[in-house]
Amino acid sequence: MYYRRQISAVRGALLGQDLLNRLPVVAARGEVENFTYSLDLEPTQQPVGAWLHLTLSQGRILILKQSRWRPLQKRWVCFQPFGSEEWKQIEVDGPGELTMTGPVEMASSDGHALFWKGKTVYQSDSWLSQPQVNPAGTKVAFLAMAGGEVEVWVWELASGRATCWQRGLQGSDPPCWLTQDSLLVCQAGRQLLSLSPKGQQVLYEGPGLSAPAVSADGSQIAFISSANETNDIFVLDRPARKVKNITQSEDGEIRPLWSPQGDRILFGVAPVAGGSQLGCINADGSGRQDLHAVASGNHWHWAASDH
Question: d(Cα 216, Cα 304) in Å, to the nearest integer?
């Protein structure tokens, strides 16, 4: 009898992990593989999701209780595998992989022209690069190289005009939108600046700064810093004005990107032989996850839609 219960416990543990991974995020009762299961939910608001509390039993015998947090919507990562020209999508929160075409970009640049949905909307003698669309889809920020000087420009959909927001930017990281009407830029690898037509404000100063990224609600900024001699991911909590180092690896990380839910950060481990190993981590530094995918160059991002 003892050994039977031990075997049931092992089978139940494996089954529990599988059920918590694949069952829909809804309360449920049922039977599977001679086990009776009960799934109860505990919703969470920040981030949006729910704790799934699973109970497995056989007759009157309780086999196990397990819990796992799940998002209400599946999260996917798009990447271009090293040595390949095709794009793939992998599911972060469970098994799954799709082959897809390259990402469709609302804004793009080709030398001296800026394109919006494939149509030329702005041309310049300067070299244009790194276009970034604001969350509302009404403005495009981009870099312009003019006479050896880097400038930050913004094109507006409503007026069809582009204006310069900053001259003399020292750095090549793309600008990213802090709000609908303000940008975040990295200046000289030493400062993170909030930038708008009204002026600029220093949000953070430190050594070896690069690749800043803003969470969907604008409350947190992830960035790379070499303060610990290797490139680590740091997170700035803007309301609390606190900075936390969430990775400390010997290889170093590059290009952190926030999930649409604002709870996970996608990143690459320092390139090896041309590819970058992809990983995810929670904003507080917990739950580091190897995605078992090697991306080419900087070709990775969160999927824009759910599946």
Answer: 12
Task: Tell me what pLDDT residue 158 has.
Answer: 94
The amino acid sitting at 124 is S
DSSP 19: H
Alpha-carbon distance of 10 to 14, in angstroms, equals 6
Give the integer Cα–Cα distance in Å for 176 and 76: 21
Model pLDDT for residues 248-292, shown as the tens digit of each residue = 888 889 999 999 888 899 999 976 666 889 999 999 999 899 988
pLDDT averaged per 10 residues in sequence order, the chain, 307 residues = 59 77 78 85 78 86 82 78 79 58 73 90 94 93 90 96 94 92 95 94 95 94 92 95 92 92 89 80 91 86 65
User: Do residues 184 and 221 make contact, with C-beta atoms less than 8 angstroms apart?
Assistant: yes
Q: Would the CA dihedral through 133, 207, 128, 158 be positive or negative? A: positive
Retrieve residue 116's tokens.
Answer: 């919006």
Q: Which residue matches tokens 């992998």? A: 90
Alpha helices in the chain (DSSP H): 2-22
Angle value at C-alpha 48, between 43 and 49, nearest 5 degrees: 50
Query: Pick from 56, 58, 96, 62: which is nearest to 76 by CA?
Result: 96
Q: In this structure, are residues 39 and 29 in contact, taking their beta carbons and an 8 Å threshold?
A: yes
Q: What is the pLDDT of residue 76?
A: 81
- Please say whether the beta carbons of 46 and 284 come within 8 A: no
Please report the domains of the chain, with CATH numbers, ordered by start residue.
2-71 (3.30.1300), 76-302 (2.120.10.30)
Using omega within 30 degrees of 0 as the cis cutoff, is the peptide bond preceding 47 cis? yes
